[in-house]
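tmp note - Glycerol-3-phosphate transporter
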Amino acid sequence: MLQTIRLWFAPAPSIPQKPESEIQSLYPKFRFRVLESTFLGYTTYYLTRNNFSPVSKEIGEALSYSKTDIGDILAVTAITYGIGKFLMGALSDRSNPRKFMAVGLFLTAILNFSFGFANHYWIHLFLWGANGLVQGMGWPPCGRSLGHWYSVRERGTTFAFWNIAHNIGGGIVGVIASHSASQFGWQYAFFVPGIIALIGSVYLYIRLVDTPQSEGLPPIEVYRNDYPPEEKEDHEAELTTKQLIVEQVLMNKYIWLFAIINFFVYIIRYSLIDWGPTYLKETKGADLLGGGYSTFILEFGGIGSTILMGWVSDKFDGRRGMVSLLCIIPIFFAFLGILFNPPGSLWIDYVLFGLIGLFIYPPVMLLGVAGMDFTSKKAVGTAAGFIGLFGSLGRTAQGKGLAILATNYSWDVALSAILVSTLIAITLLIFSWNLRPRG
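out:
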């Protein structure tokens, strides 16, 4: 049985290379096809992952869940997502992304339906934890696909554009979840995204492709004459599991640096995604829809800046750490503004949420790209999974930690903890200031 599953997920085999005239015609079409399908697919993954937070307060009221209960659900999901992203990353590097990503989206749809039908805490904890695990099947196959179809010198710009899938998915899910819940009940915050995910899984299976060689095309390095430093001869060499995990990741000091930085960046990012709507409802007078729109503003605030900063990082020889540091500094002052903004001026909080979104998403994207810069394209999923694991641990820390601080002390204390995390991220990013791909 396991052997059958392994063979079904195996990468698509290479086929004889097409004539040069066909290569020049087909390559741009397939590149767009991969970018488009992974973009829409990952956007849909967000609809079934971030739909809990916008309605968590309403779920708590309906089922008598405390902040600690909600925090535990967020924490266990972050842990399983981190584990899933690392494990699934290693698996995706040895799998066909078309099948891998489509199956993951199908499974998360089923778990969303199940979550909506359940009404017991331990069942919800299990289901949302399982959802975090299969959500790990989303990013790694995207990284593998883009790493095979886009070369190193266009990586920052390409991933910057692709990365706004985070913002679009994360933004519209707040609106979809809150509107569905306000019209039909909290359960529909999971039913509606689940239906969209089922459709998306079929679309991915039909539309996404594997490597250029599986379509009769040369590797991207050959097509663009753009080889990573020190990798011209072996850029297509397959890696063993030991090489993927130990040599390319665990013994790579740069991957460790980016992973630790990502821990604190995710505390910043998810503090407002997981707790922002609840914070505004409890301290600033926002209603259900107002809390949902805060997520929309946060996510969409990062679209333009992510594209711009990805391009800037390419123009500065791939100095992703430098650009990330310059983005994190304004976030510290935005959190100070939220902390000291009194109730009654909700529009100021919305502006500051948008400002944080403007500056947090470039580092979120660039840290993942930096991981790719310092590893083989054959280990993209594994490296991204490892960096993502630390990010998920950061989300776990804030999900549980902010619940404890807000419950036992105050929201002001919780926001102060986020400010400390922001300062630590700034300090660590200083060490990445001069790092360039394979530098």
